[in-house]
């Protein structure tokens, strides 16, 4: 078993992590941290946040040699290994790790080292010590107090964690339990409206896949703040960021633009549980997280998902057909206005996501087309 104990040092925004495992091999160990996270196609170099790392075997210090920005190696004659390392966590995005006196969030890809060749062992995470009253939200299977386990490293990094004091809302769709965990600061809002609308969207998507889902429960981790927006998909959960003003006020009639966009985000990331987490490009099976993984198909995975995220708002009845057609018209206008649509095909836009779509500048509207927006029109 590969075990990680995570101890927060919230005031310093540091995670102190101990990785321990038994090796019976008689060859050097290679230990790596991913350079990118599935679902977000940019080299992020998470290893730049590792601020200290040391190793011991059978209680005796061992010399770790760093061989690249994200990889270490160490001589090994077998035994009980412990790798102690510290990671700085102050990235308030859905693809990073964050730790403050108020809350913690992490995506395993940016925090949890991988032992080369040991990926298919059981992997276990424990939090021996958390600030008082902190709760833990994740869909990673629980095996003990503050202890969670997966059967592989690939699974390990597919479960984001939210830690802190947060509000949890529950609903069921097609008999499957769903949770929305809300963190951050927000005014009172219409909880039953949010629950009702998200429930309808999830039920409509589940129906499209004949009620079969790649999960037995589903978790929306929603962090609200000022002028933030985004989401990252996982197989049985998603991490979302939204502006606090997008939550539905009591007495709201037709959804306003901000709430419509929030509901679209819920529907978008949920649809990804099937499209890209279960049905995926060959280049992502398995994910190779050291360097770019090129595919011409992101337009199918993001574009088709973007087409359906708006359509399900109408199909589920949370917005009117007229409101849907307005969203569609806006989408067509956005694509037609950009000259980039004449410079790139959808396949080229997908393939170059790493250095073009994810690294946009003042010339991007002239040079590239969004595989989300034009992909949605192709899906239509
Ligand atoms: Zn997406």
Compose a concise summary of this entry:
With 380 residues, the chain is of the alpha+beta class.
Question: How is the secondary structure organized here?
Answer:
Blueprint: E1 2-9, E2 14-23, E3 29-32, E4 50-57, E5 60-62, E6 65-68, E7 71-74, E8 79-88, E9 97-99, E10 103-106, E11 114-115, E12 123-126, E13 135-137, E14 142-144, E15 147-150, H1 153-156, E16 161-164, E17 167-173, E18 176-184, H2 191-208, E19 218-225, E20 230-233, E21 237-243, H3 257-271, H4 298-315, H5 321-337, H6 346-351, H7 364-367, H8 373-379
Parallel strand pairs: 1-12, 18-19, 19-21
Antiparallel strand pairs: 1-2, 2-8, 3-7, 3-11, 4-5, 4-8, 6-7, 9-10, 10-16, 12-15, 13-16, 14-15, 17-18, 20-21
Helix pairs in contact: 2-3, 3-4, 4-5, 4-8, 5-8
The protein binds zinc ion.
* Percentage of residues in helical conformation: 10-25%
CATH architectural arrangement of the largest domain: Sandwich
- Poorly predicted runs are none
* Element-by-element helix/strand order: EEEEEEEEEEEEEEEHEEEHEEEHHHHHH
The pLDDT mean sits at 97
What composes the largest sheet?
8 strands, mixed
Order of strands, widest sheet: 5-4-8-2-1-12-15-14
| Strand proportion | 25-35%
Structure classification = alpha+beta
Output the CATH class name of the largest domain: Mainly Beta
Separate helix tally: 8
Silhouette: globular
Q: Based on DSSP secondary structure assignment, what is the total number of beta strands? A: 21
**Distance N terminus to C terminus?**
47 Å
CATH fold name of the largest domain = Immunoglobulin-like
* Overall tally of domains: 3
- Rg on CA atoms, Å: 22 Å
Ligands, deduplicated:
zinc ion
